[in-house]
Amino acid sequence: MEETSSVFTDAQKKIINKELHDIVLLPDQYPDIVFRSTNVIGKATGNGQYDLNIAGNLTLNGTTRPITIPTKITVSGNELRALLGELGLAVCDRTNLLRLQGDDPLDPVRQQS
């Protein structure tokens, strides 16, 4: 995890990243951050666009807590872009992911009524 916002100078980013590493995340003591989803619900909002709520359990510094991450997904060809609440942007190749639309009973997007 690293601070990349353009509102900070390079020197400020270096300080933030060091403190995040040394004081907050403690990777030597807790090397893994784990999120295991338990439920994904959402709705299509347009052509290749979806609003999701991804619920699950986040383990950070040895403590597990339930969280829900509001997520906006855009699918274009094999590219999937996810804006994960305040967590940032993830981009991946969805070639091996389940389909995000259709009648597939394994579809990770459960349409909201």
Descriptive labels:
113 residues; mainly beta; 2 domains; six-stranded mixed β-sheet; 6 strands; flat; disordered C terminus
Task: Give the arrangement of secondary structure elements.
Layout: H1 10-25, E1 34-46, E2 49-60, E3 63-76, E4 79-84, E5 89-93, E6 110-111
Parallel strand pairs: 1-6
Antiparallel strand pairs: 1-2, 2-3, 3-4, 4-5
* Coarse morphology: flat
Class by SSE composition: mainly beta
Largest sheet: 6 strands, mixed
The helix content, as a percent range, equals 10-25%
The strand count comes to 6
Mean pLDDT figure: 78
Q: What integer value in Å does the Rg equal?
A: 17 Å
Stretches where pLDDT falls below 50 for ≥5 residues? 96-113
Strand adjacency order, main sheet: 5-4-3-2-1-6
Gap from first CA to last CA: 36 Å
Number of helices: 1
- What is the H-and-E element order? HEEEEEE
Tell me the fraction of residues in β-strands, as a range.
over 45%
* Overall number of structural domains: 2
